[in-house]
């Protein structure tokens, strides 16, 4: 789980030029954890350890990831991870415009 805590910490790092790209990367890592069968409770605990300014978005990403089905082939997992990252990126851009 510590690997996922580190990844979730990326969401709270304000030094990135493109915040939507950062959200996308975090979303992909969250979906990777979901597809690796990391328990949702563990991911929510990690989300709750984020900077309060980023907790809500991280929790929403976790909730959204766990609403999606598990995939069983490696190719299906890769597709799901990429698609989830793209969805988060698009949603972030929509909020910004």
UniProtKB/TrEMBL annotation:
Keywords: Signal
Keyword Signal: yes
Signal peptide (UniProt feature, chain positions): 1-17
Name assigned to this protein: Lipoprotein
Species per Swiss-Prot/TrEMBL record: Pseudomonas abyssi
């Amino acid at each position: 789980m510590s690997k996922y805590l580190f990844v979730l910490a990326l969401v709270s790092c304000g030094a990135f030029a493109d915040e939507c790209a950062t959200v996308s990367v975090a979303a992909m890592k969250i979906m990777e954890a979901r597809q690796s069968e990391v328990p949702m409770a563990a991911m929510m605990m990690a989300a709750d350890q984020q900077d309060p300014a980023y907790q809500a978005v991280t929790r929403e990403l976790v909730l959204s990831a766990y609403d999606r089905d598990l995939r069983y082939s490696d190719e299906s997992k890769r597709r799901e991870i990429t698609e989830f990252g793209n969805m988060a990126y698009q949603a972030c851009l929509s909020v910004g415009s």
